[in-house]
Every structure is written in structure tokens, then in C-alpha cells.
Design brief:
The structure holds 2 protein chains of 2 kinds. Chain A is mostly helical. Chain A contains 14 helices and no strands. Classes of the chains: A mainly alpha, B alpha/beta.
Chain lengths: 279, 270
């Protein structure tokens, strides 16, 4: 199996795929910290599912499914951002928009009879079948998202954990919310390439949720979140290269294993630390 | 700080109208009144977050503006999520640089300021613990450290004593009152119960149903002023150094004796 990997690694398509995987993991690790802290898992789901409709629509008119996915989720982010930013109304707005988006998806699938395989790869992820052009698009999108998140990292953190004081200190809280939604939409479109629409939460929730249990230091938590995303994605791609099981299965399994280990390990760690402190 | 016939309204709803009062630098102003009477809105006006419908407001020598670094703000307490990866130290640090774009670590000088602010509220021992696991009183101390880390001239506190027990109420009030006394800082302290701040407040403003009364504690908290304000018979009693406001439960369309709005009867606290 290792021999097989070493044999495959020099191929440019494998290296491109790994590069895309690494960049998407950095994006996912960063974003998932905020998705968890802002309670936005439902919005992530909506962005992904309406993104699915977008790519179905783009395939129908003969355009790139990745571009369609990006358009679908960005448009959804704008609609959600415009209709409901207050936490209380957000869930219902997300639900309403997602339901209509999926309705359109049904229409597009019916109109395009040969859709079955492509639908499968969007729903469950298939980085191995992404075209060269789409891979470049994916890398460019990921770099833009990383830069964007880097620029708004501090005010986004402030607005997330302490919105009232952030607003008083001059942070444009509304603008930051909308910008984050757009970054989230781009991240969703990127992560879908690896794990698919239905498994999106494994990259956008699990790393952040795992990191939260590891440390109370916000910077370290962000690093840990990126670490979990990297481990799951790169590990998943490598394992998928040498087996016949899809990438997304490995990614979800590795991510879940990280989470479970931390959940079971954290109380033990805390107990031993406390014992150390009292001794 | 000076309000001149200031009126605040959200759409058609007037929160308070024609408010005029001057608070000299270094004074402690208690903002009193029932819930929903516009106490928090008064703070938002001072922060430049709620524009006046008419009249004028002068804060520290100029019109209110968002993000004024000379103003510290302690918002109404909403506890932090237990698992939030954030330490008290980080909360205070956000008060220094949270509004700046980009990544970036605090400079050595800024870290020293954070340390000093933590020290000033005696939060050192728990500054590295997850903030969501701390008690309400500890979180409130950290919020005060965050508000004071920028060395403001004006401190705005929104119900800083809510959900704290008596001991913490006294500690927090002393922390804020002491800062005002030692540093010559102005304090605007929103509270529904005047008793904890009786020894600190230089003046009070009482807002209710769009009307207001401002002045020294002794001038405002009288049966006459309060009855005029509520447009109903209200009795202000002073019992064992505490102020108790008692009104008729019916008639005026509100329950003046509701514990959330007014001091509870003395007996329950003893």
C-alpha cells in the first residue's frame, strides 16, 4: 500500500489534489471555529444544498459544476444575510431559503436525464474526478478565502464572542456578519469538492468542535481546528488513492475519530491536571 | 457630558423626550427606571449607536461617535458559552485590539496593559481559565477589566449587578465607584435597584414612560417627584439606609411594586 502511494505521489494530478486538499483544510479549519461559536451549522447545510442546486443548474446549461456550486451558495448567503441576521430569525430564514433552493434542484435533475453520476459526486464528494480547470479554480478560491478570513480574523472573533462591546468599540458588526456568510459560502463550495454536500459538516463543524474541547486558548484552538481538518483531508485523500472507497468516507471517519478521542480524553486530561495541581 | 433637550425615538415610539442634564467629569450617574424605559438606549445614545431624534448630546467634548476609545462599556450580562475557547485574558485583549483588522499579536506594552487591568480587578488567579466556566461575579470583573484596559474617561455600565448576589454586588460597585474616585473617571451606571449605589451616586436620572427626572439622589427619590413622574401616588420610604419605592399595584396600568423594577421589600434581603 505504501509502495503504491509512493508510486502515485509523483503524478501531477495527485500533487494538485493534495495541494487543493491542504488549502481547503486550512479554510475549513478556520471557518469551522466560527461556525461552531456562532451556531451556524444549519446555515452551512443550506449553503451546501442550495449549492447543489446551483451546480445542477450549471451542468444543465453546460457550465462548470464547481462554478455553479459557488454561485448557488454565494447567492444563498446573500439572501440569508439580507433577510435575517438576527439570531432568532436566522433559523427560519435559512429553512425557507433552503427548501425553495432544493425544490429548484429537483427541477434541474428532472430536466437533465444523465445526471445520476454527477449528482452522486456532488452529494458525496469526488475530488478524484474534478477536472484540471476546476482544480485551479478551487485553489484560487481557497487562497482568496484564506486571505479574506485573515483580514477579518480579529473583528470577526470580537463580534462572535462579544458582539455588544465589539459594536461599541466600532466594529462594523453587520458588515462582518455578511462578509463572514460570504466567506462561509465560498468555504462550503470548496469543502463540497472533497466530502460532498451531504457530508459537509465533517469539515465545517467537526474540526472546530474538536478544537473547542482541546484548549481554551483561542489561537491554539484555531490551530488545532486547522490541524484536525488537515489530518482528515490529507489522510482521506491518501487512503482513497490506494483503495476503492471514496475520499469522503475516510475524511468523515478520521474527523470523527479525532472528535471522539478528544471527547473521551479531555475529562481524563483535566482530572490528571487537577490532581497535579492539588498535589 | 451634557444632554440638551435630547429626544430618542425608534420610529414613532418616543423612548424619552427633551432630556436635559449635565454631568461633570468625574461624577457617578445612576440611571434608574423600570425595564423597557430606555435606560439601555441612553447608553446606546452615548456610544453613538442610537442617533437622537432631536436635541443635542455632548460626550467628552464632542458629539457621540462610534468606537470612541475614551469610553469603556460593560454590557448587560449574558453569560458565555461553557465551551467557548476564550480566556479572561483574551476578553480583555479584545478590548485593546479586537476592532483592528487582520491577525496580529498584542505588543509587549499592550500585554502589560492587559496584565495591569486584570490585576486592578484582582482577576489574575482565573485569567487563564475558560471564561464560560467562571461565576457571574468573576465574568463581571473581567468585563470591567476589558472596559478599563483602554484607560477611558467615561465608563458605561448596563445593569452590572444583575444576577449577582449581595456580596458580589458590593464588590463590583466598589470596583466601579473606586475607579471613578481614584482616576477621576465619569460613570454612567444603569440599574433597576438604587440601593447598591446609594453611597456612590452623585446624581441620578429616573426614566419612566418617556418622562424623566434628574438631580441629586435626595432631590429625585422623593414621594413628590416620583408621584409626578409616574402620574400616580407613589411613596418613597427610607428604611435602615435603604430606599424603598412603593406604589399602587393597580390604577395606573403598571405594577410599580414588581420586584424586577424596584427594590424588593427590606425584609427579603435581611
Amino acid at each position: 500500500m505504501i509502495d503504491q502511494l509512493l508510486h502515485l505521489l509523483p503524478y501531477p494530478f495527485v500533487q494538485d489534489m493534495l495541494l487543493a486538499g491542504v488549502l481547503v483544510s486550512v479554510v475549513a479549519g478556520l471557518v469551522s471555529r466560527f461556525v461552531v461559536a456562532r451556531n451556524m451549522s444549519f446555515a452551512v447545510h443550506a449553503l451546501a444544498e442550495v449549492g447543489f442546486t446551483g451546480s445542477a443548474g450549471f451542468i444543465l446549461i453546460g457550465l462548470s459544476p464547481v462554478l455553479g456550486l459557488l454561485s448557488g451558495s454565494l447567492l444563498t448567503a446573500l439572501v440569508i444575510g439580507t433577510l435575517g441576521l438576527r439570531v432568532r430569525e436566522r433559523d427560519s430564514v435559512v429553512g425557507v431559503v433552503m427548501a425553495f433552493g432544493l425544490g429548484l434542484g429537483v427541477l434541474f435533475i428532472t430536466l437533465y436525464p444523465r445526471y445520476a453520476t454527477e449528482a452522486f459526486s456532488i452529494l458525496f464528494g469526488a475530488i478524484t474526478t474534478v477536472s484540471q480547470g476546476d482544480l485551479i479554480l478551487l485553489v484560487v478560491m481557497a487562497i482568496i478565502t484564506i486571505v479574506g478570513l485573515g483580514v477579518m480574523y480579529r473583528p470577526l472573533t470580537f463580534a462572535t464572542v462579544d458582539p455588544l462591546v465589539a459594536e461599541a468599540r466600532g466594529v462594523p458588526v453587520r458588515l462582518v456578519s455578511i462578509l463572514f456568510l460570504l466567506m462561509l459560502a465560498a468555504s462550503v463550495a470548496e469543502a463540497v469538492q472533497i466530502v460532498g454536500v451531504l457530508l459537509i459538516l465533517t469539515l465545517l463543524i467537526t474540526p472546530g468542535a474538536t478544537a473547542e474541547r482541546l484548549t481554551a486558548h483561542p489561537g491554539l484552538a484555531t490551530l488545532a481546528s486547522v490541524g484536525v481538518a488537515l489530518l482528515a483531508t490529507v489522510g482521506g485523500i491518501l487512503l482513497a488513492l490506494v483503495t476503492t472507497v471514496p475520499v469522503s468516507f475516510y475524511v468523515t471517519t478520521i474527523a470523527f475519530a479525532c472528535y471522539i478521542t478528544v471527547r473521551l480524553g479531555a475529562p481524563l486530561l483535566e482530572r490528571s491536571r487537577r490532581r497535579g495541581a492539588s498535589a | 457630558m451634557c444632554f440638551d433637550r435630547a429626544t430618542l425615538a425608534y420610529g414613532d415610539r418616543v423612548v424619552w423626550s427633551e432630556l436635559s442634564m449635565t454631568v461633570p467629569q468625574g461624577e457617578f450617574l445612576a440611571v434608574l427606571g423600570p425595564n423597557g424605559s430606555g435606560k439601555t438606549s441612553l447608553l446606546r445614545a452615548l456610544l453613538g449607536l442610537a442617533p437622537l431624534a432631536s436635541g443635542s448630546l455632548d460626550v467628552l467634548g464632542g458629539p457621540p461617535r462610534r468606537g470612541n476609545p475614551a469610553i469603556g462599556y460593560v454590557p448587560q450580562h449574558a453569560g458565555f458559552d461553557r465551551d467557548l475557547p476564550l480566556r479572561g485574558r483574551d476578553l480583555v485583549g479584545l478590548g485593546v485590539d479586537g476592532h483592528r483588522w487582520g491577525f496580529g499579536r498584542l505588543s509587549r506594552a499592550d500585554r502589560a496593559r492587559v496584565e495591569a487591568a486584570l490585576e486592578a480587578v484582582e482577576a489574575g488567579p482565573y485569567a487563564d481559565a475558560p471564561i464560560g466556566r467562571l461565576s457571574g461575579g468573576e465574568q463581571q470583573r473581567l468585563r470591567i477589566a476589558q472596559a478599563l484596559v483602554g484607560d477611558p474617561k467615561l465608563l458605561l455600565c448596563d445593569e452590572p449587578l444583575a444576577s449577582l448576589d449581595m456580596r458580589y454586588q458590593q464588590e463590583i460597585t466598589e470596583l466601579i465607584g473606586g475607579w471613578s474616585r481614584d482616576r477621576g473617571g465619569t460613570v454612567v451606571f444603569v440599574t433597576h435597584d438604587v440601593n447598591p449605589v446609594l453611597g456612590y451616586a452623585d446624581r441620578v436620572v429616573f426614566v419612566v414612560n418617556g418622562r424623566w427626572a434628574a438631580g441629586t439622589t435626595d432631590a429625585v427619590l422623593t414621594s413628590q417627584t416620583m408621584s409626578d413622574l409616574y402620574d400616580a401616588p407613589v411613596e418613597v420610604l427610607r428604611v435602615r439606609g435603604r430606599v424603598v419605592v412603593v406604589g399602587e399595584a393597580s390604577g395606573a396600568g403598571f405594577d410599580i411594586d414588581e420586584p424586577h423594577h424596584f427594590p424588593e421589600p427590606v425584609g427579603t434581603h435581611q
